[in-house]
Structure formats: structure tokens, C-alpha cells
């Protein structure tokens, strides 16, 4: 995926969840759970994403939890990647289902 979008699958998953589940931000623990990643894996991945300015993290004022926030750079990268990812899903999965379904449909 990265050669076409500049995002790894993990990057895309993080950014997509931030927008779809959290309207741009999620608690780090909630993000980890939604991706089925352990806290350490997500933390390391977010560090790499922060260096590329795709996300920022900030501590919540109410407790020790951390909020992950998509940046304008991250939102732009996600918006640019979505049509490419959609096309790949269509080509590699949906079109295959359509071909299989039409092959298994009895002739009238």
C-alpha cells in the first residue's frame, strides 16, 4: 500500500479509525483496542507517525490518559489514500466475489 499512498497499512488503520470512530481523535487505549494492538506496539507506531506529522498526542487534563489526534497532514494523507484503497479493495475482493457469484449462478 505504501508505494501508492505513502501510508503503511498500520498508518491507514490509525488515521481511518481516528476519523471514523473518534471524529478526529481517540484515547490511545481506545485506539489500541479498536486495532487489536497492544499498547506498546501502538505507542511505537504513533511515535513514527508523529515524526511524519500525521498525528499528535496530548495528555488529557482529567487523568493520565493520552489523546491521539489526527493532524491536517494526516487528514490530507488519508483523504488522498482513500480512493486508492477503495480501488484496491474493489479489484482484489469485490470484483472477485462478483466473478465467483456469476460463475455459480445457474443459467436460465
Describe this structure in words.
- This protein is α+β, with helices and mostly antiparallel strands.
- The protein has helices spanning 2-5, 9-22, 28-35, 39-51, 72-104, and strands spanning 25-27, 55-59, 66-70.
- Strands 1-3-2 form a three-stranded antiparallel sheet.
- The mean pLDDT is 84.
Shape: globular
Give the strand order, joined by hyphens, for the main sheet: 1-3-2
Number of strands: 3
Specify the CATH homologous superfamily. Winged helix-like DNA-binding domain superfamily/Winged helix DNA-binding domain
Strand content: 5-15%
Rg over alpha carbons? 18 Å
| Helix/sheet category | alpha+beta
Q: Give the H and E element order.
A: HHEHHEEH
| Alpha plus pi helix count | 5
Q: Look at the structure and give the mean pLDDT.
A: 84
How many domains, in number, for the residues? 1
Instruction: State the name of the first-level CATH class.
Output: Mainly Alpha
- Major pleated sheet: 3 strands, antiparallel
- CATH architecture tag: Orthogonal Bundle
State the helicity in percent bands. Answer: 55-70%
- Calculate the terminal CA-CA distance, rounded to whole Å: 41 Å
Instruction: List low-pLDDT spans.
Output: none
The CATH topology is given as Arc Repressor Mutant, subunit A
Amino acid at each position: 500500500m505504501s508505494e501508492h499512498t505513502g501510508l503503511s497499512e498500520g498508518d491507514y488503520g490509525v488515521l481511518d479509525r481516528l476519523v471514523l470512530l473518534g471524529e478526529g481523535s481517540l484515547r490511545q487505549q481506545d485506539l489500541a483496542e479498536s486495532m487489536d494492538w497492544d499498547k506498546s506496539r501502538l505507542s511505537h507506531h504513533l511515535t513514527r507517525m508523529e515524526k511524519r506529522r500525521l498525528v499528535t498526542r496530548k495528555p488529557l487534563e482529567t487523568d493520565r490518559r493520552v489523546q491521539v489526534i489526527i493532524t491536517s497532514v494526516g487528514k490530507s494523507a488519508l483523504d488522498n489514500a482513500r480512493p486508492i484503497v477503495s480501488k484496491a479493495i474493489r479489484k482484489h475482493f469485490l470484483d472477485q466475489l462478483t466473478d465467483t457469484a456469476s460463475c455459480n449462478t445457474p443459467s436460465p
